[in-house]
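Subject: Sanity check before I submit

Could someone independently write out the C-alpha cells for this chain? I want to compare against mine line by line before I put it in a report. The sequence has 454 residues.
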Amino acid sequence: MITASAYKGKKIGVFGLARTGVAAVRALEASGADVQAWDDADERRAAVPSSLHNLYDADFSELDAVMLAPGVPLTHPEPHALVKKCTATGTPIISDFDVFEAARNDLALHKVVAITGTNGKSTTTALIGHMVAACGRPAAIGGNIGTGILALEPLADDGVYVLEMSSFQLDLTKDFNADIAILLNITPDHLDRHGDVAGYVRAKKRLFDMQAASSVAIISVDDDHGAAMASSVRGRTVPISVEAAVPGGVYVLNGELFDDLDGKAISCGDLLAHAPMLLGGHNWQNMAAAYAAGRILGLTGANILKAFGSFPGLAHRQETLAFIRGVRLVNDSKATNVDAASRALKAFENIHWIAGGRPKEKNFSALLPLMGDVKQAYLIGEAADAIAHDVGAAVGVTDCRDLEHALELAFANAVDGDVILLSPACTAFDQFRDFEARGEAFRTLVKAIEESTV
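---
Independent answer below. Compare away.
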C-alpha cells in the first residue's frame, strides 16, 4: 500500500467503506493517523472493525479532515448530512487522491498520468498502463478503475502511476498535481450529482486547475467543452483530435495517426493495422491520448505502436467474445449511455443490436442516424418502448424482454459477416446488479452458443 508520513498523528474521518474507503483506512492507519471510519451498511463496517466510530455522532471540530466516498453528494440533489456537518465545523473534505499527493515525496522518482472524460477513461487508463509496462518501465493502474489508489504498491524508480479519475472523485479532491492530465471528451452525464452541465464541466476542469505550471495537459478539442478548456488551462497543452489536424498535437485522420508534437506532422501509419482490437473513432481518440502521453514520458513512437498491438482490451468495452459461424459477438455492456452506444454503433457494420435497460437519458433519438448499419434492434428492459419509439422509423425492432431471448433471436437471424453487438445505451440496474454483471451474463450466454455449435 501507499502511506503518507504527512498524516502521522492526524485525526481523519473516513465515510464509505467500499473498495476505496477500506484501502484508505488501512493506508492512513499505516501512516500513523487516528482513523474514525463509518459506513451506513452493516456489512461494510465489518471490513474495518477496529476503526469504527459513528461519524454522525462524532465531534468534527476534533477532526483534521473527513474523507468521503466518491458517491457521497456534495451539493446535488442536496448535500449529504456529513457534508453539512463539515460545512458547519469548517472541517476539510478530502479524497484518497489528496492522501496520495501527500505521499509523493516519500515515493521513488516517478510520474503520474491521470485520465478523465465522460467515455473511454477506463480503456485509455488500461492502455497507457499496458504501454508503459510494455516499454519496460514500472507501471501501476488504479483510481476509479480496479484498485483504489492507496492500495497500489509503491513503484521503483522511473515508475508511472496511471490513474483514472471520475467527476465524483475530482469534486472531492483539493490537492492533486498530475504530471500529465488527460481529458478525452465531455458529454452530459451525472447531472443529478453536479446539478447541470456547467457543474459537470467544472468538476472535470479541476484536474487541470490543480496542476502545476510545469505539468502537461492533453485535451481532446473535438467537443466544445474540451476546446474551451484547452484554451484556458495553464502550462503546456497538447491538443488531440480525430476530426482535424491540430498543430503541436496528435491527431487521427481516417484511421491514420499523425504525430505533430515536434511540429513536423509525421505519419505513424494506419491504426487498424497496428491495433486491430481497438476499433472505431472513439478508440482512435483513446490511442491519440495514449500516444501523446507516451511521447511526453519519453517513449518512442515505434515502441508505443508496438504496445498498442499487444493490448488485449478491457472486459465489457467492445470486447469481442467469439466468432461463431462467421458472426462476431461483441460485449459492450459498459455502454450505459447514448453517447457510449453511438461510439460502438459507428465502429461496426451489419449489426444486430441488443439494447435497453434502465435509461439515463430521456430519449434515444440521437441514435437514429446510426441505424443505417443496424439490421435489427433487439430491445430489453425498462427502456425498450422508448428506444423503439425513437429509432423504430429507421430499423426493425423486437421487444425481447431479457438478454437471453435477445441473443437467441439475434443469433438465429445473423449470417456470416454480421456482428451481434450488446451496447445497451442504458444502465443495467433494472435486471442486473451492474454493467459488469450484465456483461458476464452475456459472456455466459455466448459461451453456451459456442459450445452448442461445436
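---
OP: Matches mine. For the report I'm noting this point. The domain at 5-96 is CATH 3.40.50.720 (Rossmann fold).
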